[in-house]
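Long-time lurker, first post. I've been practising inverse folding by hand and with some scripts of my own, and I keep getting stuck on stretches where the structure tokens seem ambiguous. Below is the full token string for one chain I'm working on. Before anyone asks, I'm not after the true native sequence, just a reasonable design that respects the backbone. If someone could post their per-position residues I'd love to compare against what I wrote down in my notebook.
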């Protein structure tokens, strides 16, 4: 049976292109949704034999929404819009682990074309922006830190001042080589 892909397992990471040699990409905190749009304009020409279509250039964009937060990535994206700086973007698929530190991903560079920060009286402040990609997103395997991978959905922080985010304790059940029902079956024989 096919398993559906869940949106929460695809996370965006960003970096200013000018910082590629001295900074790691960072995850956008509190993402609510993102949409990668690929489209091309199709031109048509009427002929005596019928309409002929020709494909235009592919245009790719990423529409991004997140809750507003006081984080490096949020500040970085806002700075990039205001200063018209090129941004690198990765969509990391955390369901496709390649090895200990690599995950299947898509990568592209481009410019943010807008920055919205709605602050409704009854809701959390949000950010909305669109990254227009140069060319198209390309597939590859991205390096993700162990901490980012382990804390992508939840993290634990200790009670002492200056405590950092850390991976939560694994609560999954641990089974012996044989389960209780198997032990009972063996005992009856």
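-- Answer (accepted) --
I ran through it position by position. Result:
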């Amino acid at each position: 049976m096919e398993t559906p892909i869940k949106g929460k397992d695809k996370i965006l990471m960003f970096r200013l292109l000018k910082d590629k040699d001295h900074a790691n990409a960072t995850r956008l905190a509190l993402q609510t949704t993102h949409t990668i749009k690929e489209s091309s304009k199709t031109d048509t020409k009427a002929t005596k034999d019928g309409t002929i279509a020709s494909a235009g250039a592919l245009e790719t964009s990423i529409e991004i929404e997140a809750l507003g937060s006081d984080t490096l990535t949020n500040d970085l994206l806002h700075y990039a819009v205001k200063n018209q700086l090129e941004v690198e973007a990765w969509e990391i698929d955390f369901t496709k682990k390649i090895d200990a530190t690599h995950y299947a991903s898509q990568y592209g560079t481009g410019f943010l074309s807008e920055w919205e920060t709605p602050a409704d009286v009854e809701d959390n402040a949000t950010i909305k922006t669109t990254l227009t990609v140069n060319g198209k997103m390309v597939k590859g395997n991205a390096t993700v830190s162990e901490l980012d991978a382990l804390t992508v959905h939840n993290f634990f922080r200790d009670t002492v001042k200056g405590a950092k985010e850390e991976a939560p304790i694994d609560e999954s059940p641990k089974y012996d080589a044989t389960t209780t029902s198997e032990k009972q079956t063996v005992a009856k024989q």
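A couple of notes from the structure itself: The beta strands are 10-16, 26-27, 31-47, 50-67, 87-97, 102-116, 126-133, 138-143. Confidence is low (pLDDT under 50) at residues 183-187. Happy to go over any region you disagree with.
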